[in-house]
Amino acid sequence: MNNQQITVIGAGTMGNGIAHVFLQAGYKVHLVDTNELQLNKAIDTIAKNMDRQIVKAVLTIAEKETFLKNISTYSSIQDGVKNAFLVIEAATENAEIKLKIFEQIDAHAPIGAILASNTSSISITKIAAVTKRPEKVIGMHFMNPVPVMKLVEIINGYATDLNVTETIVALTNQLNKVPCVVNDYPGFIANKILMPMINEAIYSLYEGIAGVTSIDTIMKLGMAHPMGPLQLADFIGLDVCLSVLQTLQQGFGNNKYAPCPLLANMVAAGKIGIKSGEGFYVYTPGNKDLVVSKRFAI
Ligand code: NAD
Predict the structure, then answer these.
(1) pLDDT band at residue 298 under the 50/70/90 scheme
(2) What is the pLDDT of residues 261-287, one digit of tens each?
(3) For residue range 135-162, what is the model confidence (pLDDT) as tens digits?
(4) At the fourth CATH level, which superfamily is domain 191-292?
(5) Which residues form the catalytic set?
């Protein structure tokens, strides 16, 4: 049992997963969200995901009970971060929201605490600059779903201290995940390489070179990708893909990242993938088959 306490800010998709893996590594976790419903939902999700691990014999019932006793929820950052040695922010991907959150964390977390962000695209250097401890601010970019995915992209901001990077690398190994350290430039590495591929897949559809099924099957079977790029885009959320591409385009000042007009149209129409029920595919509860949206059926 590890008695150290970490705090996760934001109890959404990523926040509950991050809390889960730290509980499983024996940490005490404080989970903070401004939305009470999200906090309750997160605890339910963690319990359900642990049940799945019990079925797979990864966890015992006794371990689950112990782990769930080690998580407490808070609606205020001030109370939630008080004794943390590490705070990981996984709140909504919005620079204004994140900068405000970091000002508050910095004001209330212990002086020695490391402050990490799970942002997919916002500059760690910019986030660090609103704190009085930029050398202790770092990116910890977990992948979705957190309990399953092995990678953590560790992002060094301009001012991040080498000791802080070393501590976070060691901690990531302790979570039984694989840390990869990169520098702070738009999209870091994961999205700088993934998003142009997704954009190119959408362009290929837009230009009529191939249909949804062909594009995804070629990339799945030909490149041994577990999911085709269009299915992956639906999974990530087309709104997120659009926003990351715009960040890359602006950040590098390079139009090679310009989002495909079809992507922009789909987001404007609210067809943003799994979370809206339709993107390149349609998603009906209870149906696991991949059904191409009528808009693209050929
Ligand atoms: P989400 O919308 O599921 O959850 C965000 C949560 O933040 C919500 O519960 C919201 O109530 C909470 N929140 C908003 N403002 C807050 C505040 N001021 N204080 C406390 N909580 C606040 O989002 P998500 O998909 O979990 O993404 C969270 C972060 O993780 C984002 O930065 C995103 O870019 C990053 N990320 C997401 C994925 C993914 O696949 N979803 C993958 C990697 C990284």
Answers:
(1) low
(2) 999 999 999 999 999 999 999 999 888
(3) 999 999 999 999 999 999 999 999 999 9
(4) N-(1-d-carboxylethyl)-l-norvaline Dehydrogenase; domain 2 (1.10.1040.10)
(5) 120, 141, 153, 191
What digits encode the pLDDT tens for the residues 68-110?
999 999 999 999 999 999 999 999 988 999 999 999 999 999 9
Number of Cβ atoms within 10 Å of the Cβ of 163: 11
> What is the C-alpha radius of gyration for the chain, rounded to an integer number of angstroms?
20
- Provide residues with CB under 6 Å of ligand 1: 9-15, 32-35, 38, 90-93, 97, 101, 118-120, 141, 144, 236
Ligand 1 atom nearest the C-alpha of 240 is 34
CATH architecture classification, 5-183: 3-Layer(aba) Sandwich (3.40)
Whether pTM > 0.70 for this model: the answer is yes
CA 144 to ligand 1 centroid distance, Å: 12
Q: Which of 77, 92, 198, 274 to mutate to test the pocket of ligand 1 (most atoms within 8 A of CB)?
A: 92
Per-residue confidence band for 21, with pLDDT thresholds at 50, 70 and 90: very high
Which of 37, 73, 87, 120 is the pocket-test mutation for ligand 1 (most atoms within 8 Å of CB)? 120
**Domains of the chain by residue range:** 5-183, 191-292
